[in-house]
Amino acid sequence: MFTIFGSTALVISYFPLYYKSIGFSSAQIGYLYAIGPLISMFSNMIWSYASDKYRTIKRILTLLLIGQLVLLLLLWQVSGFALVFTVISLFYFFYYPVYPLADTMAIQTAQRYGRSFTVIRVFGSLGYAFFALAIGYVIGAQGVSWTLAIGIALSVFTLLFSLQLKDGVMNKVEGMNAANLLRLLRSRELLWFFGCTLCLALAHRMNEAFFTVTLSQLGAGEGLIGWALMIAAVSEIPIFFLLSKYGDNIKELPLLAFASLMFGLRFLLMALAADPIVVLAVQCLHSITFGVFYVTAVRYITRMMPLQFRATGMALFTIFWSSASGLISGAFGGILFEHAGRPFFYMLAAMLSVLAFAGFLGRHLLAKPGQVYDEGIGG
């Protein structure tokens, strides 16, 4: 988890700066960001469904990491937009499915040893924080050209760690077929949850795709960018521990509504910010936005999805939280950011967050007693 989420800091936050350094426009950066979510919309389902069907996470996770390493080596050799676009598309086929599988393995490991998932997930935040800061200083000292070399080194370490993992006990479960999965996907509860998640994710991915570009426009150097990313990741840790201890006492939908409202406040402040130091302060809200939402959403999915579709359920959540939202925000966000400006860009993100708040809160208030909280979708 430490090295996997360290790679996230690199790919999500520093790849845009690398693209900018080799001469790509904001619109081109948006397209490169968008192609990953487009690829992951089917790659997440392919690999996670295979994991559920063949009852293994470790072997598929290792295969994905090998694919990432090979494609990073290829990406190091190209610089034209068309070639970069092709190679990064293949890279994302192996990159995005790692996260739902890693979370599923973390859930299994937590259950095996009687620990909380959030305690294991904290190491992802620590990895993101450490590498966000360290990579910022390395790139600041050595140049943006080191971005891919760092990515290759991280891939090697993650692959070596993956070889030491142990698959959970995944006994064969009845009902593991596509027909049951399709019936499950027609559940009104899931559709409502994923619809609200998509609204919030659009706002979150808009910020994620152009956060480092925003800081760069405000005059921040690579070191300050690293600190901004580290502050966000470190702020998650106390929230994860608090939710691990007390989160089960609070129903999921009110927590999701609260996180969405705080996202709206965060993006409103980003629209008004005119100094990189102000942006650093706003980053502290990451704890009660992403931190609260992510842990609560994983708990919701884990409770609602039947055991035989656990990895597939996490993949579906990832598709809405990362893939579909990243595709839309990447395809249109670059154009919007370039032509409408940063304040309007973030005001739109704030409005989407408030829409998600209304959806989660409305579902909580309008649901019949016992309809949502007393029983999962799987019965």
Automatic annotation (TrEMBL):
Domain of life, source organism: Bacteria
Annotated TM spans: 29-47, 59-76, 82-99, 119-139, 145-163, 184-204, 224-243, 255-274, 280-302, 314-337, 343-361
Keywords from the named record: Cell inner membrane, Cell membrane, Membrane, Transmembrane, Transmembrane helix, Transport
Listed name of the protein: MFS transporter
Protein location: Cell inner membrane
Domain Major facilitator superfamily associated: 2-346
PANTHER family recorded: 3-PHENYLPROPIONIC ACID TRANSPORTER-RELATED, BLL5896 PROTEIN
Membrane topology: Multi-pass membrane protein
Entry annotated with the keyword Membrane: yes
